[in-house]
Amino acid sequence: MEKFRSELVVNEPVEKLFKWHERPEALKRLNPTFQPVQVINKEGDLRDGEVTLRIGNKPLQLDWISRHHSYSQNRNFSDEQLKGPFAFWNHDHVFESVDSENSRLVDSVTYELPFKPLGRIFAGKHIQKTLKQLFAYRHNICENDLKLYKRSEVDRGKILVTGSSGLVGTQLIPLLTGAGYEVEGLKRNNSSLQEPCWDIDGGQIKNVDRCDAVIHLAGENISSPVRWTDSKKRSILKSRVSGTKLLATHLASLENPPHTLVCASGMGIYGSRGDVELTEDEAKSDDFIAEVVKEWEAAAQPAIDAGIRVVFLRFGVILTPLGGALKRMIPATKLFAGGPIGGGQQWWSWLSIDDAIGSIFHALNQKNLSGPVNVAAPNPVRQGDFAKIFGKVLNRPSFARLPGWLVSSIMGEMGRSLLLSSTKVDVSKLISSGYQFRFEKLEDSLRHLLGRRIFSD
């Protein structure tokens, strides 16, 4: 039998550490971004529940079924593999009280590889390295989620989320439920008469009559297909402006409107501004994306007029291998085709997916925060430096240049706006409101997201 052990000490009493793991969607927070995992089925709880995970991408997917056992509240629980890639697997989670304010989590895994002794010879070191990355990721998520919750000890309520099935929404909901919020998604064209739903074309919202706050993430994907056609532009504009106006008007009409509306927005409102450091008060651009963002934010005015606190989070480039720009860059970089785009001197204001959802949580709970807020890591980088750091993390060179004229000829206005635009935003407003970034340096963020940490031993 092989063994692996990892420890985490957090500045929280053991009861809170254990409760975080007991939340129904804690597993979704712990699933690493660098290992595709879907929760296919979940029955019961940590006492005697059973979970089915689907791991990997087609055609190499496999199902992993595990059963929880040996539950003792605030002390331990375990899970064993019933079906999966190992000949044997058992994971013990042991919770220890260090003192009244600190606690320790000890993860102990006992496993046996198949096809022994060949499995150990050919895969033994790889499995140990993978487990190191996996538990470093899990412990980072757990520790920083608890820190975030601790900085906003307020009464939890009911949250309505649009775009809940999107890239950000799927990561956000487990963060909210882990804090104790009741979360509902506002779904489109839902035939159910019981669930909250909306029809933007028809101008209707149903089954939304009470919620404490709303998080508005819905909107057409701006980076697909390759070029912006006139119809694609209309779709982008309508999805953001019409949807926001419908939502804001409906919330304003409620007898008991929510206290807060957090709206996703974008740094594209500033346009390409070279080396200028852009605050929220900076003059707006007049290109397509800037006009979309201006109308998008203006559409929330009915909510503001009704006394609802509205926050517009102007996101930078959100990094996650699960989707967006980073997912598209990984294959090219691994194939030695990564490098500067259009000279590489343009500024990219980036942030990790965990800081994207963390800033949403922060805006939800920070009552003095309102209006537009730039959301990006406090250390933007030039695109060429981004490519170099990304290549370093993936152990690939970054010499393959992509000329700006080629980007323009293939992608047109979309390529110029998304790849060649230089936007260096100032995030002082977010930081002064009390937000603490999980990842301020690009390399640290990429190593976390991609499972490429460097360990000293």
Question: Care to describe what's here?
Answer:
The protein has 457 residues and is an alpha/beta fold. The protein folds into two domains: 2-150, Alpha-D-Glucose-1,6-Bisphosphate, Chain A, domain 4; 158-450, 3-Layer(aba) Sandwich (Rossmann fold), CATH 3.40.50.720. It has 13 helices and 21 strands. It has helices spanning 14-22, 26-30, 118-150, 167-178, 230-253, 288-298, 301-305, 324-334, 353-365, 383-393, 404-420, 428-432, 442-450; strands at residues 2-10, 37-43, 50-55, 62-72, 76-83, 88-97, 103-112, 158-162, 182-188, 197-199, 204-206, 213-216, 260-266, 277-278, 309-315, 317-319, 347-348, 350-352, 371-375, 381-382, 424-425. The protein has an eight-stranded mixed β-sheet, sandwiched between helices. It has a seven-stranded antiparallel β-sheet with strand order 1-7-6-5-4-3-2. Strands 14-21 form a two-stranded parallel ribbon. It is globular and about 65 Å long.
